[in-house]
Amino acid sequence: MKRSLIGLAAVATVLTGCASADESEHSFADVAAVRQANDGPAGWVPPWLPESTTDIKVKFNLDTNVSIITGKLGGAPLPEQACKPAAETATPKVTADWWPNPLPQSTTYHCGDFFAVADGDQVYAWQG
User: Which pLDDT score is estimated for 21?
Assistant: First the structure.
């Protein structure tokens, strides 16, 4: 019985380690830096972010295909052609130190595969 518990604890430790290893967090100075990166973490940043967006942070999970993103819009609104008010929303399934909980009480938009909330000049977007 003691061996079974030790084995179960070892498996739980390994599985927990695998789950956190698949999450990755990255920062970009601006949209130009995202475009220069052109792969990996940059692929998680939505193309509809205004060119003026700076201080971009993204966190994603490769296993679950979920992500959260924030950035400063630089005075630009969310693009009307890409972002429409959302009738229903999903709850973000990833958290980070920079991610507010709860999200700001504002209109939630559906922007392609993402949901987004603008709070003044700050945007918070998530998918998955």
Answer: 62
Nearest-angstrom CA–CA distance, 90 and 22: 21
Phi and psi at residue 13, to the nearest 5°: -65, -45
Tally the residues of the chain: 128
Ranges under pLDDT 50 in the chain? 1-19
Angle (nearest 5°) at CA 11 between 6 and 14: 125
Positive/negative CA dihedral, 121, 28, 35, 110: negative
Question: What is the pLDDT at residue 127?
Answer: 94
User: What are the residues facing 126 on neighbouring strands?
Assistant: 68, 115
Vertex 58: Cα angle to 56 and 61 (nearest 5): 175
What are the pLDDT digits (tens) for 92-117? 999 999 999 999 999 999 999 999 99
End-to-end, the C-alpha distance of the chain in Å comes to 40
